[in-house]
Amino acid sequence: MLQNISENIIGIMCTLVMTSAVGVITHLFKQFRGLSQAVMAINHDRLYQACTFFILTGEITIDELKNLEYLYEGYHALGGNGTGTELYEKCKDLPIVEKRTKWHESYQRSC
Predict the structure, then answer these.
(1) Which of 2, 46, 83, 105 has a 20 to 30 A CA-CA distance from 89?
(2) Which residues lie closer than 8 Å to 76 by C-beta, 6 or more apart?
(3) End-to-end CA distance of the chain
(4) Cα angle vertex 82, ends 78, 85, to 5°?
(5) What keywords are annotated for this sequence in UniProt (predicted)?
């Protein structure tokens, strides 16, 4: 009888531990998914802003193109949609200049 009680207690304890572990893993997964979505949103916004600027000015430098490539790779790795890809492809087709010569009135010149 005492052995049955101890076996039941051990079974209940194992069940509680497993249930808690599943709850923690579920919570962490939800947080990770939310973080991935937030990173995707920020990356999309930055990619969109940069591409819009380059397309409006009609030129891009090698450094700007390289930076844009890094942004796009992260965006694409997270499963970014066709909007970012379309903008990135348009920027790759822009004339490459050694130094930026054009600015657009919608954007403040930072240098």
Answers:
(1) 105
(2) 84, 85
(3) 82
(4) 80
(5) Membrane, Transmembrane, Transmembrane helix
